[in-house]
Design brief:
Elements lengths: L3 H7 L11 E5 L2 E4 L4 E4 L2 H4 L8 H11 L12 H13 L4 E5 L2 H20 L5 E5 L8 H7 L2 H4 L9 E4 L7 H4 L4 E6 L2 E2 L5 E2 L2 H13 L3 E5 L23 E4 L10 E5 L1 H4 L15 H16 L2 H23 L2 E6 L4 E5 L7 H10 L2 E2 L1 E3 L3 E4 L7 H20 L1
Parallel strand pairs: 3-15, 5-6, 5-7, 7-10, 10-11
Antiparallel strand pairs: 1-2, 2-3, 4-12, 8-9, 11-12, 13-14, 14-17, 16-17
The structure holds pyridoxal-5'-phosphate.
Length: 400
């Protein structure tokens, strides 16, 4: 049997995982190696949006596993093509590139934007504007986009040509987005920062400046995409159309896949050989992802996300009235951030550990925020039970 101690013996120490070891899961319930049961308010990190082992996904994965597992991109790949067609049908996009993760999709998105700007406007147009407190991944380009010293320290030299600006700050945007800017990289809801939504006037200003100065808008929907906010993609609610969009997490429901979506005229700047990947477009991943998108459409699932969001808000507000434990509750569909009032006994780690003890998996975000990202089809009864565990955990800590 594997133990948590063995993790420290064999794995690079970049993670500090929980002390229990999940071994089995179904829907929104996870069991650990000691057969203890947990309600899942984490979904990995906002990944298993249709719950664990969702039967239609298990079926397509099994079926595809008997047909073909891998194809190089020297071949036309039917599952990848079917998924691309479906993504184009449901979004602004005309063309898709498949990657393996969110960060890889972001890398490709920035490459695409720079290549397009270079070809259309010449070499000088290559700067990328990103925002404070963003999270775009852990590769060199994406940590440079994140911009926080916490993630870049010790890894320099960083890729150049990136400028940062405070999120939701209009003042000074016109000085940062210039004729030299190739693209603005934007999250419409900053997840890692605590579920912070972009303000309408901030978006309008970005749109206006990008139009005036021929700048592409890259929207990072790696975490917000595929139903998490109650629409297939968050941009549908924010009165903005991306030129390039990235998605990953929820797309494969746990089977690794990332995607870049864009318009035809932008895609045309990426000629044969301009970009590529060995595993992107994997037939197993694409079959699963196609079923994810189709399941979302079939099940009227997205309108239920908004209903379940209201349930969370109602219960969390009641809890906060009773316990006075949150400074703020932010929500964007089934993506919820509860900023804790930190006291001697209550902080993000103590609440998380107590929730684990009491049988609930929940996430952290920055800024002392408990992040909740359950399956989009979690049963209402489990929402109530999970929230009761948060309440019980905070009461126990307040009394400790
Ligand atoms: C908004 C956003 N972009 C990019 C990434 C990076 O994705 P990945 O971890 O799959 O590389 C993440 C991951 O958390 C994310 O939340």
């Amino acid at each position: 049997m594997v133990t948590r101690k063995q993790f420290d013996d064999y794995m690079m120490p970049v993670y500090n995982p929980a002390h229990f070891i999940p071994v089995k899961a179904k829907g929104s319930i996870v069991w650990d190696s000691k057969n203890k049961k947990y309600i899942d308010f984490a979904s990995g990190i906002a990944v298993t949006s249709l719950g664990h082992c969702y039967p239609p996904l298990v079926k397509v994965l099994n079926d595809q596993s008997k047909k073909i597992w891998h194809l190089s991109n020297a071949m036309t790949n039917a599952p990848a093509l079917n998924l691309a067609k479906t993504l184009c049908k449901h979004t602004f996009a005309d063309k898709v590139f498949f990657a393996n993760s969110g960060a890889e999709a972001m890398e490709g998105a920035v490459k695409t934007a720079r290549k397009y700007a270079n070809q259309k406007y010449g070499k000088g147009k290559n700067e990328i504007v990103a925002f404070a407190d963003a999270f775009h991944g852990r590769t060199m380009m994406t940590i440079a986009l994140n911009g926080s010293e916490r993630m870049t320290k010790g890894f320099g030299p960083m890729p150049s040509g990136i400028k940062h600006h405070p999120y939701n700050e209009i003042k000074g945007l016109d000085k940062v987005i210039t004729k030299k800017t190739a693209a603005v990289v934007l999250e419409l809801v900053q997840g890692e920062a605590g579920i912070i939504k972009a303000k309408r006037n901030f978006i309008s200003k970005i749109k206006k400046l990008c139009k005036e100065k021929n700048v592409l808008i890259i929207i990072d929907e790696v975490q917000s995409g595929v139903g998490r906010t109650g629409t297939l993609f968050a941009y549908e609610q924010f009165n903005i159309k991306p030129d390039i969009l990235t998605c990953a997490k929820g797309l494969g429901n746990g089977f690794p896949i990332g995607a870049i979506l864009t318009k035809d005229h932008i895609a045309q700047s990426m000629q044969v050989g301009a970009h590529g990947t060995t595993f992107g477009g994997n037939p197993l991943a694409c079959s699963v992802a196609l079923e994810v998108i189709n399941s979302m459409a079939k099940k009227r699932l997205l309108s239920n996300v908004m209903k379940k969001e209201k349930l969370f808000i109602k219960y969390l507000n009641t809890m906060n009235k009773k316990l006075n434990c949150f400074e703020r509750i932010n929500t964007a569909g089934l993506w919820i951030g509860c900023k804790l009032k930190v006291t001697e006994n209550i902080n993000l780690d103590s609440v998380l550990q107590q929730c684990y003890k009491n049988g609930l998996m929940v996430l952290k975000a920055n800024n002392n925020t408990i992040r909740i990202a359950p399956s989009l089809i979690i049963e209402d009864k489990l929402i109530k039970s999970g929230l009761a565990i948060i309440e019980k955990s905070i009461i126990q800590l307040q009394k400790a």
